[in-house]
Amino acid sequence: MSRKRPRGAGPFPRPVTLTPSAPVAGEKRLAPNSKPDPADLYAALDLGTNSCRMLIAQPKGNQLHVVDSFSKSVQLGHGLEASGRLSRSSMARAVGALKICQKKLGQHDVKRMRLVATEACRRATNAGEFISVVKRETGLALEIIQPEEEARLAVVSCAPLVSTRTEQLLVVDIGGGSTELVWIDLSRVPPLERPRAIMRLHHGFDHEDTVFPRAKVVDWISIPLGVATLKDMYDDVRDDSARFALMSWYFEEQLAEFSPYVDAADQSLEGFQIIGTSGTVTTVAASHLGLKRYDRNKVDGLRMTSDQIDTVISGYLALGPEGRRRDPRIGRDRQTLIMSGAAILQALLRAWPTDRLSVADRGLREGLLYAQMSSDGVLEDGPF
Question: Are residues 57 and 201 in the same domain?
Fold first, then answer.
């Protein structure tokens, strides 16, 4: 098998452009001369390959306070791998969820927002038609963002979890249709400034900052494989263990063009931290903790060893499909996708062996909120 960077993976650096089939429907903003009020509410909506999720929040010090949230599995990318198009039933499910989001935005009178779609809409040949349907049916203007921005915002969301002792950082965001990896060198940034330096990346991976210490992005990649697309590729393999092994092997093959794969995979790095942000990582953490009812406060920021992660994944395999369906720690929405996500996670830990993985219950939505608030100057400067 040729070990090339997959199409759409996006080497660094790369100019970001949108195609005619992915129209930008700008943010809802106030008049140019109006100053942001720290009491204003902000919203971020992420329409992914599998889920529709939204947060409404208010700036609070250097953090954000969540006022309302919404999450629903819509399986927008169901059948996309085979047809290249969003199906009518998938679009209908997504529009139904977006109507609920529209009502929440109206109830809270949100004026600052970003509403984005990711890999499924990037790949679908009828994405433009879908965006028009959403606008007509809900009044919401969805924006299709490119892989670089998706990766950047996932990194920004994890800034509060970056240790001041971290010199080399790998952020991994396992989505429904794609997986983003970003390797960042923080060795030249003063320790207390490292989380703040990550936050400043919302300007761009190649943004030159002449005033503040700068985090250096060594490389980033967006692999067009996520929990939904990888599962669909191997749906015809009946043996559970064989399917898992094939998925994990295939994903590791896609890492070959990511430069730190060669430079760092065989080294023991000082001050190395991996942060994993996704439903897969948080589900594995909840299973490790034995949570029958999910608790974000116990999961977000948890550090797990490679052995603990392997134990959870081995337990999933031992349960088999029927056992996983009945396991309350996994949940009905996640049980069909957990093994493809676990295969990705295990491949990453083979490539970069580490004693600890930091679990982040945060991602694109939080990154969108932090970026908006930071740009508006409503977040207080200071240590996280």
Answer: no
